[in-house]
Amino acid sequence: MTIYIGADHGGFDLKEHLKAILENEGHRVVDIGAARMVVGDDFPECASAVAERVAKGASDDRGIVICRSGIGVDIVANKFAGIRSALAMSPDHIYQGRHDDDVNVLALAAEFIASDEAEKIMKVFLSTPAASDERYLRRKEEIREIDARRS
Prior knowledge:
This protein has 151 residues and is α/β, with parallel strands linked by helices. 50% of the residues lie in helices and 17% in strands. It has helices at residues 12-24, 43-56, 71-77, 91-101, 115-127, 134-150, and strands at residues 2-7, 28-33, 62-67, 85-87, 105-109. α1 packs across α5 (115-127) and α4 runs parallel beside α5 (115-127).
């Protein structure tokens, strides 16, 4: 699994914190940017770069996108076919998203969650398998069909 991570200036510090944890745990991490703090940079570029790589990558690749509210990066990531991005505010929240909906991009709100809570959310995101029950697989296929109609 490759984990792609990206953030604008509002999420830069949290990105760096989470990236260090991932690397220390031995994960393969690709930092999409920003490479340095650039006050006033915009989130669409980094969020789209992460989503594009996850959409074109291996089926187990994941993405993490971060901005102040988490909303902007979540909106951008969900523009890509094959991406199921979720803005999660708690470990239980992302557990349900991973288990039920096979979320493959995690959006985080740097201004609304503490770094230790973000770390817990990230760990649940990376460790929770998607359910294989027929109803979850059926719903995931329905999402794929919607993506195909939009293309």
